[in-house]
Amino acid sequence: MSKTISILGATGSIGRQTLDVAEQLGLRVAALTANSNAERLEAQARKFRPRLAVLTDEAAAKDLAVRLADTDIRVLGGPEALLEAAVCPEADTVVTAVVGMVGLKPTLAAIREKKRIALANKETLVCAGQLVMDAADTYGAEIVPVDSEHSAIFQCLQGCADRREIKRLILTCSGGPFYGMMAEEVGKMTRADALCHPNWTMGPKITVDCATLMNKGLEVIEAMRLYRLPLEQVSVVIHRQSIVHSLVEYRDGAVLAQLGTPDMRLPIRYAMTWPHRADNPAEPLDLLACPPLTFAQPDRDVFPCLRLAEEAAEEGGTACAILNGANEEAVGLFLAEKIGFSDIPRLVEAARAAVAVQQDPSLEDILAADQAARQAVLARA
Start and end of every 1-deoxy-D-xylulose 5-phosphate reductoisomerase C-terminal domain (predicted)? Predict the structure, then answer.
């Protein structure tokens, strides 16, 4: 069980909920980081009193240093300061709740220090899964997933000593706000429409990814890396109610599922307490009050991002880094209202065609592929 944590991405949705859980469990906080929200990070730092507070935006970090000048909290700025937060000696667990490729280097740094990684940054495994998992094996670091789907699978696999017993992993997907629409209707959806998720409250980038189904595609890749299974053993079903968080089908026909309310504090809490469980003050799932649980096939024609992710997973090498970098750039343009919703998969597919894939990549190859994909999107937007 964790005792002291560092949170990378403390002011975002996962970071804030992690602090709620930390307070309930009585965990100490060693380091907090964010991008540029000095006001919120100041409030968090004053409440939880970490040794270190980091803002990757250097101007915002200077503001934070002034705000916290009456405390003994050390304030650092710039992307490289994330690495110092990731290896903070006091912390036994690092919660990687930052969004995007920025989480890769700090995660690897924490792994080298044998920290437990409470992984909420899926891009780390999507882009560099083999490198990350190999490093975890080498240094003996634990990786415990925070994503609700991967936490569900992680829980359903407890007691499974032989991965050959697994027939397939079944990731559930709410379908997002545009489920059931035709392609022409989806193409007219706006930024405001895409940010209205039916079940979950999340940050804007991941909410848009849920609307395109790219989030589920990235989770397919993440599951392949985390559980070391091929694409054909990872499937997706639409489950609108977000009560069944994912399932594992075993070779004897048994199917285990993890159910719960759509509350990210549940998988966060499990990542903190694993291999144990702690009391939870939140209302538990009431089966008698649940709506009927339904399941359906995803529509890869209307939502091509899921197909694009599966194709990248099949190709391997830097294909997933290209996919992810292109998607991050395209979603950023959509959130800035510079492109339409249907332009996201169009630009991702164009970048995948434009950037050559390299097999058996190094970290430098992966970072270069990410940058090339972003440039390809900007050139075609």
Answer: 143-227
